[in-house]
Write a structure and sequence with these properties.
The chain has five helices and five strands. The chain is of the alpha/beta class. α1 (about 20-35) runs parallel beside α3 (about 65-75). The protein starts with a strand and ends with a strand.
Length: about 120
Amino acid sequence: MVRERFLVNLTRSPESDPDRVTVAFVMARSALTLDKDTVVLLSTDGVWAGVPAYYAKVHEDGFPPLADIIHGFLEEGGQLWACAPCVVKRGLADQLHPRVQLVGAVTAIAWVSENGVSFSF
């Protein structure tokens, strides 16, 4: 049986909405503690959250630095996907964290459609 899946769709950038970006990754990390197969999908301006130079600047009050949250998420088995056309549009392909996987809509829809739930931030 397929593990329950949890997809967080992040559409905001760390610079424009650091609180929302931080909470999205906290939610994703929390899903991992519940043994969910977890993906953060970076889409539209959310692809900036896959760029270390941008997320390294974020530290919201009451939370660990965003870089620590993202690195913990990846170390604990989370997957980080980015919308391929969104990345290309913004010219970010060579700036992404090496663990970011470029995907298209079909991949994300197929993945979450099999025993999954999606949250959007």
